Amino acid sequence: MKVARVSHQGAIRYGIVDDGELVVLAGDPMFAGFDTTGERLPLSDVALLAPVIPRSKVVCVGKNYHDHAAEMGGEAPEAPLLFLKPNTAVIGPDDVIVRPPQSERTDYEGELAVVIGRIAKNVPVERALEYVFGYTAAVDVTARDIQYADGQWTRGKGFDTFCPLGPVIETEFDAGAARVQTRLNGAVKQDAPLSDMIHSVADIVAYASAAFTLLPGDVILTGTPAGVGPFVAGDRLEVEITGIGTLRNTARDA
Ligand code: MG
Fold this sequence. Notes:
Blueprint: E1 2-8, E2 11-18, E3 21-25, H1 29-32, E4 36-42, E5 47-48, E6 58-62, H2 66-71, E7 81-85, E8 90-91, E9 96-99, E10 106-108, E11 110-116, E12 132-139, E13 142-143, H3 144-150, H4 154-158, E14 163-170, E15 179-184, E16 187-193, H5 201-209, E17 219-221, E18 229-231, E19 236-241, E20 245-253
Parallel strand pairs: 6-17, 8-14, 9-20
Antiparallel strand pairs: 1-2, 1-5, 1-14, 2-3, 3-4, 6-7, 10-13, 10-18, 11-12, 11-17, 12-14, 15-16, 15-19, 19-20
């Protein structure tokens, strides 16, 4: 199922995308289940929002593809390299990424995002996927010059608007059979099978949950393949993941 969070006539609604329409749900399916209201809305009548607002955090994995680690000038670390983005960085489909004046180089990183559905602490790898609600696409927007200048990544990856998510959450998704592709103004910049990830979704959920409790609605960005690069004001970014859809955003200067 493709779960959408939308704005309709000034109200936030949740629904299931079905054949160009939204089957409206009674509440947030992560907490209220999949009861429907009986309404069907044409998708053209609603605006898609970020499909989830992380309860507490966006967990990210750095250098989770060998070819991206190589393009950054090093080896991939042996264990998942975790960092956090604040939930205030999240924006939705068609929202605008704002390039901060402190940075002269902002990069796109197209990534698969995992949406946690249950409280997860010390979850074993074999059961980790039971804690996943679904999957969506993300951009790990990065002020590369600030990331390097600060020596750690919080500010460079944490600016407002630096975590586009969407367009929907796919609850039935096989990462082993899908690809992630990033396009800049229509030109393909990143294109890789998700099976190229060094640490699998299950590995990452288990590893992160051994460090901190994951809450329903927390999001994990699983890393980016090779081909990262800069974008500027006026550019159009698209991250497409097979079976999920295409997340589209534009950029402007602050
Ligand atoms: Mg990244």
